[in-house]
Each structure stands twice: as C-alpha cells, then as structure tokens.
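Morning. Coffee machine broken again, so started the prediction first thing and wrote up yesterday's gels while waiting. Chain of 270 residues, entered below exactly as on the submission form.
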Amino acid sequence: MIAFGIYLLKVSVCLAVFYALYATVFRRTTFFRFNRCYLLLSLLASFIIPLVPLNLFASKYDLIDLPALNSSFIEMEYGPLLLPRQVSDSVISFSYAQITFCIYLIVVFLLLIRFVVTIFRLMRLKRYAQRHQADDRMIVRTALSRPFSFLKWIFIPRRQKVDPLIVEHERAHVIQHHWVDLFLLEVVIILLWFNPLMLLYRRAIQLQHEYLADEHIVEQGVSLEYYLNCLLLHTQQASVPFLTNSFYCQSIQQRIMMMTKDKTPQRFSA
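Came back before lunch.
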C-alpha cells in the first residue's frame, strides 16, 4: 500500500514536469496535433518512468557484497542482542496507511461508477433517440439543448435548427477520434483524483481538441470571418456530459485568438 502511494506520488511529479514544459513552451504554439500527442504521451510516460529501476545502468562493479554477520557469534561474545521495541508505532503507522488506502479506493470506486453510468446514459440516449446516417456521420436527435459528439455519433437538439458549421465541427471531433483522448484522460483522473493538476490536463487536452476542430473547419474553405461570427453568436456556456466534445464547452476567446494567430514557424519544432 505504501509502495503504491509512493508510486502515485512519483507519477504526479512526472506529470508536473511534463505539464510545466507544455505550459512554458508548447501551449502558445499552433502545433495542435503535436500538442495533443505530447499531452497524451506524457500521461502514459508518467506512469512508466517511475517503474524504471534507478540502477538500470549501474555497473556491476559498483555493488560490493559484504559477508553476513553471524548472530550466534555476536551473542557468544557480547550477550543477546536487544533491539528497541517499535511494534506499537509500526502498527499505528500501518493502520493509518490502511485507512488512507481505503479512502483512496472508495473515491476511485465512486468515480468509476460515475464513468460507467455516464457511458450507459449516453448509450441509452442514443438508443431511444431519432437517428439517421449522413455521409460518414451518425446523427442523433435528442431533447437536449446543445449539440455534442460522443464516439462516432453527433447529438443535436431535436426541436431547434443547428448551424451546419456546428455539425461539421462535431464531425471533426468524431473523425479525429478525440473520444479516445477523453477516455484515457478520465481513467488517469480516476487514478489520480487527489491531484489538482489533472484539471489543468483536462482543460489543455480539450482545448487542443477544439483548436483541431476549428482548424478543420477553416481548412474546408469556410470563411474565417463567417466562422468567427458563428463562434461569437454562441458564447453561452452549456452543460454537456464530461466524456463528450462540444462546440460550446471551451473558451471562445482562446479559440478565436488561436485561429487569428500567425502559424508557429516550423523551425520552432526542430
């Protein structure tokens, strides 16, 4: 238990280092695909690095074997060994470790239930909603007030007209498989629920998703001015399931700044 706790702390330290590098070097660049890959790989690397033994490259000559002491010889010469009794302290420490680990597991279990229930509700929403195929998109009409995407489906409101640009924006999330990132991120958040840095990781990854979707729209030949006006018309934030991507869920101001920003020179990545 204690070893596992130390491992999670090491993972958190690795994540902090990776995120600090992202925040200081990569966050303001327009390398959206690179940033997405960097954030995802840093999540995986943070769990792998603490498992690498520190003496992996140590020379065998650095290790010196000392002969074991013969306890019977010591007792014969100096009398029986008397060690200080620390049983009570170790028992108390062990109890605290057990309690802490139980609390950790309870929170993990509750978050896992939330994760599964959210997926179940989204699947149920898809099952009982109106569906139709449009090109490579599966359009699902629901009673919800905001469009969003989940897995290969695009959910749009049943009782209101949705701008085709918004639908295409959600399609970009689908074809770029952004749901994979969100699933991986949520698993890490469940394991590291005690680490507030995960909230920054979630926001960073979701922002890269929105930048990529916005870039997809502009690359389709849509007027940048028209698309920016569309963004400004939808500045209201809306509540959507946490495992989904949505046109409305991120800072409009940051997205506009990124779309109007000059491309980062390629030599920056060299």
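The longest strand covers residues 137-142. Going to sketch it on the whiteboard this afternoon.
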